[in-house]
Amino acid sequence: MTTSPLANLTATRALLEEFGLATKHRLGQNFLVDNHVIERICAQAELTGTERVLEVGPGIGTLTLALVQEAAHVASIEMDAELEPVLAEHAAEHANFSYVMGDALKVPYERIVEALGGEPELLVANLPYNVAATIILSFFDRMPSIRRAVVMVQKEVADRIGAVPSTKEYGAYTVKLALHGQVTGRFEVPPRCFMPAPHVDSAVVRIDRYDEPLVADAQFAQVARVVEAAFAQRRKTIRNSMSANGFGKDELDAAFAATGIAPAARAETLSVEDFIRLAEVLAD
């Protein structure tokens, strides 16, 4: 099983001391110190030695040093400039590792491709919790070459990612991400696996992109618009919420009649397929 030399308290403390670093909660930094979790992340990623892997928020490189053992190339995006010397040392020691300094949501795609030597195929990361949900959806939107994501997130975000209709976790985010792929794996990670221990529970989620897209590229914006309007006023009926957010009541009534969706239903009761059908009719 693949492990990391940094995934223990002693090694993590020694490296932080060597480089004069302290954890920064404002950047969501909690360092993973459990190799069992590293092993399970790598198992979920199913790397074969040929993949280009994108990592966001490598920190001191704990997960990175496991990924470079199994991937063709790993490129990490890190926002904290104080961590660059650590990453530079890893890059000097591993020819198949490179890094980009900057905000993952703002780094130009061309820089990522250049760092990886090609388009990213997998996203494997212990994500910064404060922007994790945004990063996942943004990368699936912007990077069609990513076919799988294995990501550590706050438990509540994991619940939203894998939510099903008629639950409080199910919302616009769930549906928009489900247009790209489906959750195929998940496991919980307790606070004791980190240093310092966070005050939240964590989970690793695996998301696999569909082999055949649920909707064509040209339809994505329309489906997303329908989803956002439907969930904009969650406690209202779908008809009232959508009519207050850009859709005419007459066109909505015609669409509900054509799809068999009840206008008095609430958004959280609709499936992903329901939203796609509704968007298709409203686009005509």
TrEMBL record:
Residue ranges of domain Ribosomal RNA adenine methylase transferase N-terminal in the record: 37-211
UniProt: S-adenosyl-L-methionine binding residues: 30, 32, 57, 78, 103, 126
Domain of life: Bacteria
Keywords: Cytoplasm, Methyltransferase, RNA-binding, rRNA processing, S-adenosyl-L-methionine, Transferase
Major place of residence: cytoplasm
SUPFAM superfamilies from the UniProt entry: S-adenosyl-L-methionine-dependent methyltransferases (SSF53335)
Pfam families, per the entry: RrnaAD
Reactions catalysed: adenosine(1518)/adenosine(1519) in 16S rRNA + 4 S-adenosyl-L-methionine = N(6)-dimethyladenosine(1518)/N(6)-dimethyladenosine(1519) in 16S rRNA + 4 S-adenosyl-L-homocysteine + 4 H(+)
Cellular component aspect of the GO annotation: cytosol
Subcellular location: Cytoplasm
The keyword Nucleus appears for this protein: no
GO molecular function annotation: 16S rRNA (adenine(1518)-N(6)/adenine(1519)-N(6))-dimethyltransferase activity; RNA binding
EC nos: 2.1.1.182
Family indicated by similarity: Belongs to the class I-like SAM-binding methyltransferase superfamily. rRNA adenine N(6)-methyltransferase family. RsmA subfamily.
HAMAP family to which the protein is assigned, alphabetical: 16SrRNA_methyltr_A (MF_00607)
Record function comment: Specifically dimethylates two adjacent adenosines (A1518 and A1519) in the loop of a conserved hairpin near the 3'-end of 16S rRNA in the 30S particle. May play a critical role in biogenesis of 30S subunits.
Name this protein carries in UniProt: Ribosomal RNA small subunit methyltransferase A
Organism: Enorma phocaeensis
